[in-house]
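Human:
Focus on the backbone:
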Amino acid sequence: MMNNAANAYKNNKILTASPAELTLMLYDGAVKFCNIALMALEKDDYNKANDNIIKAERIITEFRATLDFKYPVAKDFDVVYDYIYRRLVDANLKKDSEILEDALKYIKEMRETWREVMKLNKA
């Protein structure tokens, strides 16, 4: 019963979110998936690590696919997303926590940048 309520809340939250809020949720998801993958690597659970790194890779791929290059800043974002993506792939291939933590650091920085943009747009 409680699980159904939680799922309904989560679905409603997604359906009523603005594009900016959805972007923030995707960043949160990428952070969550990297953290799950890091914990899985600690336990040598390579399947779980692989699954979650791939989820993070898909989010980064989506961010790159939706960049609007009529804005000069899109090129800068693309460079960062390319770096993050390559680090995720490398971390997955090598099952390397340090590389994954590097990618996670950049994802968190991008998320914080996005939060600041959202604050500025509300002001």
